[in-house]
């Protein structure tokens, strides 16, 4: 839309066609831009061109398109065709995401910790992002997000002490065989095991996010999640079912995301 207005500004006689499937002018002032573009004479045709051929003599481009509003196939002869491509993450974003333990969405952009409650935070503590690395967005949204990311970072940078999640993996060295499985599965690289020296698994508490993956994977039952030990969970279940257990349903849900997912449902 913006480009069509710019072309009209410099070449008022230019005939412009925009072929589209859906137009969502969702931002502040975007609907005005769309309206102005139409008022300037830009033609919006609902339908995707199925074929583009070149006139061998005059080299013009011929487009065949099914106009779904008029329910007919139309043909246009144009001097120039510009393809509007979708925005994709850069190829090396995956490498960076692996390095920083950042999750990615199915289309490759980085994933926020929570879309409403922590929209500029990565799930990995201390990492914040802004702009199109998270999803395609315009300048205004990018600047707003950048401001929020700076504010979130400054809380950490200006703190004398940092508060951390109390939920950490704790290794029972009497049970640990130094097999190394926990270190392999830890998504945060928070466990060090010297398999040869057999010194047991050591959890770097500052890096441990308390996800519980290692505890679930350890075949020797050597890892307990602090504040979520089996004894504590069983005690909670007993307490919950003390009265009228036949009327209750107990669900085991993720400590991190069940509230957020319920909130979004
Ligand atoms: S998976 Fe269990 S036994 Fe193996 S190194 Fe880790 S804590 Fe030790
Ligand atoms: S609880 Fe999760 S983050 Fe912490 S050491 Fe185990 S696997 Fe790594």
Automatic annotation (TrEMBL):
Give the record's keywords alphabetically: 4Fe-4S, FAD, Flavoprotein, Iron, Iron-sulfur, Metal-binding, Oxidoreductase
Q: Which family does it belong to?
A: Belongs to the HdrA family.
Instruction: List the GO molecular function terms.
Output: 4 iron, 4 sulfur cluster binding; metal ion binding; oxidoreductase activity
Cited SUPFAM superfamilies: 4Fe-4S ferredoxins (SSF54862), FAD/NAD(P)-binding domain (SSF51905)
Q: Does the keyword Iron apply?
A: yes
Q: Which organism is it from?
A: marine sediment metagenome
Lineage of the native species? unclassified sequences, metagenomes, ecological metagenomes
Task: Name the Pfam families on file.
Answer: Fer4 (PF00037), Fer4_4 (PF12800)
Q: Which cofactor does it need?
A: FAD
Q: Start and end of every 4Fe-4S ferredoxin-type domain?
A: 167-196, 199-228
InterPro entries per the record? 4Fe4S_Fe-S-bd (IPR017896), 4Fe4S_Fe_S_CS (IPR017900), FAD/NAD-bd_sf (IPR036188), HdrA-like (IPR039650)
Question: How is this protein named in the record?
Answer: 4Fe-4S ferredoxin-type domain-containing protein
Q: Does the keyword Disulfide bond apply?
A: no
